[in-house]
Amino acid sequence: MATPTADMTAALSAALTAGAAQARADLEELCRIPGIAFDGFDPSQLQRSAEATAALLERSGLQGVRILTDGGAAPAVYGEHAAAGPGQPTVLLYAHHDVQPTGEVDAWTSPPFEPTERDGRLYGRGCADDKAGVVAHASAVAAWIEAAGAPPVNVKVIIEGEEEIGSPHLDAFLEATGDLLTADAAVIADLVNWQVGVPSLTTVLRGMVDVHVTVEVLDHAVHSGMYGGPVPDPLTALAKLVASLTDEHGVATVPGLRAGLRGPSPSEQASLDALDFQVDRFRAEAGLRDGVPFGGDPDLPVLQRIWMEPFLSVLGIDAPPTQQATNAIQPHASAKLGLRVGPGQDAAAIRDVLVDHLNAQTPLGARVEARPGAAGDPFETNTDTRAAQAMLSALEEGYDTAPVLMGCGGSIPLLGPLQAANPDAAMLLVGVEDPDSRAHGIDESLHLADWESARASIALLLGKLAT
After folding, report:
1. Which of 85, 280, 391, 411 could form a disulfide with 208 if both were Cys (CB 3.0 to 4.6 A apart)?
2. CA-to-CA distance for 219 and 93, rounded, in angstroms?
3. Which residues are tagged catalytic?
């Protein structure tokens, strides 16, 4: 198929409009499934989510749809449409169907797995991150089939099932699937736009590592009155250990954690300077309480701290809940630490630095055992490519406003290995979320009008990449 004509583009727009109600229904159907890949959650729900995703891809007109668990991975879903033939490029569309745990269910305004619309937003776990991306890809393909019989380029779709736990089987999965995911360009619909109504193309992502640490003092719990004093408290020891890792601004102080880190390039600095960053708006989007100052290096711009600086946080602590607490000294306490790593850094090497440092500590004389978890490298992409320029053009047309270049403090483990397997492919990182989507948090939501623009932009891109 040649480059789409104006009439064909008009037909595509009509197909997207006609398919909007079905896309919304498909999204709500997926969002009702609690497909969580974390340990301790029902794996049958993750399988159910994969099966529903596969059914969606088939209804959208994709061929060869199948569920993949190669390399021990949680169920991913693959489909393709290769009718454009060898003279046209191949575009890989990526999203993930697994979601984060809900946190405290009672804190949600509406049930997390019952999608609910309020004021133009759809609320529910996974509505934004990243089932919005799943349906956007499927509906883009469906619209082209409705408008022209087939997409104007060859399309592959991969919907991952374990992105939220750091894609631990990614290397084995890619090795086992061979050239299944080879493409000339990849569209990653799992990012955040600059603002509602202002789309973005993301150029840099932080990486992430996690470490599990346990502080142990006893082989069983003892009475805090009869033994407290000579017997140290492991929760206090854990608190001291964690507090020792950062300074008064929350900047990690462990030697070696900044190894390899680079600052903004001139072009990145220009992009940072060009963005209309408003402190009050950012505080409101984050929900930062009055009087709480920004953390991180106070000498650096806020956006640089988010997108390009390491950041250490406590992701969870295993300890007795307050409602079940007894007057006892516990035998041990554990925490899961997360560390975002900046551009230029080697995530696995930084993780090992943190593990070695923790294992060398003895807070209150307690025994410390740190174990390495997942590691995903930071990622950078080049916008000086035909595919990136086509994506920027598609975003401008889809949102009816000029897109911006920006970074993201989040991580997508797939990107590094996928780029290594496709060294000449353009990685196009686009948003289906906005700063108030609260992905991973309570009351996650999707701005529905922006999502329609995202659907249109991905569909338009396929036409712009046709040769």
Report:
1. 411
2. 51
3. 98, 163
